[in-house]
UniProtKB/TrEMBL annotation:
This is PKD domain-containing protein. InterPro entries: Ig-like_fold. Keywords: Signal. The lineage of its organism: Bacteria, Pseudomonadati, Bacteroidota, Cytophagia, Cytophagales. It comes from Flammeovirga agarivorans. Gene3D superfamilies: Immunoglobulins (2.60.40.10).
């Protein structure tokens, strides 16, 4: 059987022509939502058929307001004078020349039947099979744009990344999903549909938002590529340190360490500059001790006459109000706390003593910075240190000084005064 096969015409405007089912994806899944499209138009007649509807197909769905065409497929061996289109059992229009094409618009929402009647030259009419189509509400196009981050933005590992967007959809927004590197991550069903992530490890990531409207249609944002880098160590600078002179009474036995306020998340260095009264050489072997407060002794430098002693702790909720006690073995001393605004650890430590010489320390190539504490005898002090302070012995002004330095120098040297006393150098690690 020879057929007059008509070429498939494109829809004139906004035509949605498919026999499809919507595949809904639950929020818990990581599968893309989409549509399953139908097969191509009919192009053959069955045995005994004279006319058939080539397009649209049975069960097609067409958007409200669309203009679409109905195309007839006829038997070339039958002489026809015209073909007529019937919609819902009523005559709609006719075409006297092949290919037989009918333009349709303005159909209301709902199901409609289509039938093409071929009028033979011999006066015999031939009807096609009746097909059913459905006019559905038009899908209002949606849009979604990520606006809080841009391509090539860089973030530190652990840094919160806030993802916001500008979105609109005439059919209403049901939800927005966040996808990272093609993998579903999270869903937000409430405006303004924002997300915050802080779990990404160093690397490059593609960020995409997918919006579903109230008709389950999906709109995908343009992807945004971001970089996540390993966090950089905080530079240790002197401006992040603060010193407080603590109450101290010269006595034997334990006395309370009295700190006005310890702050969680800081690092405290308890510094004791002690004078031992010039006992005979080698006869003073009484280092100070601390009990409680989570203090760890990291350095003792000096001799029988003068010493510098340092303890360290990181302040947390458990120890912030527990400062412990110190026993200086009746030394004339200055007790202070040097607080760093942050958490740092200590590394290599050097314990030193100087006898009327310039202060010099070889850090042996270790990476700084270093906290250097020099406790001097007989009132001499540095003009190069970051901080100098003296002390009182039972209320009387003493002549001994303590000098603090924060240095990166591998070969530390202070030629501004001659040191007689003890010193320590403590490596600081961010």
């Amino acid at each position: 059987m020879k057929c007059k096969q008509l070429s498939v015409l494109l829809l004139i405007s906004n035509m949605v022509l498919f026999g499809a089912c919507t595949k809904d994806v639950l929020p818990e899944t990581t599968t893309e939502e989409g549509l399953e499209l139908t097969s191509s138009a009919r192009n053959t007649l069955s045995e005994g058929e004279v006319v058939a509807i080539q397009t649209p197909l049975e069960g097609s769905t067409i958007s409200e307001g669309s203009i679409f065409t109905v195309e007839g497929l006829t038997d070339e061996n039958v002489d026809l004078v015209a073909c007529r289109l019937w919609i819902d059992g009523e005559f709609h229009s006719y075409d006297k020349e092949a290919p037989y094409v009918f333009t349709v618009d303005g159909l209301p929402l709902g199901e409609h039947t289509l039938m093409v009647r071929a009028n033979g030259a011999d006066g015999v009419n031939h009807d096609s099979e009746v097909i059913t189509i459905t006019i559905v509400e038009a899908n209002a196009p949606g849009s979604i744009t990520i606006n809080s981050i841009s391509n090539r933005d860089t973030f530190e590992e652990g840094e919160p990344i806030h993802i916001t967007s500008t979105s609109s959809d005439g059919d209403g927004i049901k939800s927005v999903r966040l996808w990272i590197d093609g993998n579903y991550y999270d869903i937000n069903k409430e405006a303004p549909y924002d997300f915050t992530i802080d779990h990404l490890t160093p690397g490059t990531y593609e960020i995409v938002l997918k919006m579903k409207d109230e008709k389950d249609n999906n709109t995908t944002s343009a992807p945004v590529m971001i970089e996540v880098e390993a966090p950089k160590a905080k530079e240790i600078v002197w401006e992040d340190f603060s010193l407080a002179i603590l109450p101290y009474v010269r006595m034997s036995g334990n006395q309370d360490i009295i700190i006005d306020k310890s702050v969680v998340g800081t690092t405290e260095f308890l510094i004791l500059s002690a004078s031992h009264g010039n006992p005979p050489a080698g006869s003073y072997e009484k280092e100070s001790t601390v009990e409680g407060g989570d203090w760890t002794k990291v350095a003792y430098g000096g001799d029988d006459d003068k010493s510098a002693e340092v303890w360290v702790r990181q302040v947390n909720n458990e120890n912030k109000n527990v400062h412990g006690q110190i026993n200086t073995k009746n030394a004339a001393a200055k007790l202070s706390v040097l607080t760093y605004d942050g958490l740092i650890s200590t590394g290599e430590t050097q314990n030193l003593q100087f006898h009327n010489t310039k202060a010099s320390i070889d850090h042996n190539g270790e990476e700084g910075p270093f906290l250097v504490v020099i406790a001097t005898d007989n009132g001499k002090e540095s003009s190069n240190s970051d901080l100098n302070y003296g002390y009182k012995d039972n209320g009387n002004v003493g002549d001994d000084m303590t000098m603090l330095y924060l240095t990166h120098e591998d070969q530390f040297y202070d030629n501004s005064f001659s040191v007689r006393g003890g010193a320590v150098s403590i490596q600081l690690i961010p």
